[in-house]
Write a structure and sequence with these properties.
Length: 154
């Protein structure tokens, strides 16, 4: 029996910016965040950036955003290094984001996803996210998006 991967989750710091930018470029072909954006977000009380490492190597991150006086959180970005795909890291990142939102009294977690990203949509649905809106031509390349929501109250 294989042991679970030794992933460590922690809040991101300014020391992570270069690695976060590099991961963005390895994971995304559009709407990449740069160093200035990460630095601004790390200083913002409404942004929650967590990284996942294994043996000191950054393998993934996610960014959740909140608004003052709102208990609805938004998962703005989530990324797993290409070499870590298929290991369960994406699910672990998402579960961690859900746990952090719940622990901070969120009532829901929203996200947007390209309608053609079947792998991500399947994962979100497995964790009880539901499509709540179609976003025509939402992405820079003209692709439609779905807004999905996980509600913590029933």
């Amino acid at each position: 029996m294989n042991a679970a991967p030794a992933w460590q989750f922690r809040e991101a710091t300014l020391k992570d910016v270069d690695n976060l930018v590099a991961l963005e470029h390895r994971c995304f072909e559009y709407s990449r965040m740069g160093a200035r954006s990460f630095k601004r977000l790390l200083a913002a009380p409404s942004a929650h950036i967590y990284v996942c490492e294994q043996n000191g190597v950054l393998l993934g991150y996610y960014l959740s955003l909140t608004r003052k006086n709102s208990r609805r959180w938004r998962l703005y970005s989530i990324a797993a290094a290409p070499e870590a795909r298929g290991t369960g890291l994406g699910r672990a990142l998402l579960e961690h984001a859900i746990e952090v939102a719940r622990n901070n009294a969120a009532i829901s977690l929203n996200l947007e996803v390209k309608t053609d990203n079947a792998t991500a949509i399947r994962l979100y649905e497995k964790l009880d996210f539901a499509v709540i809106d179609l976003l025509p031509e939402y992405y820079d390349d003209g692709t439609d998006g779905y807004r999905m929501r996980l509600s913590f109250t029933h």
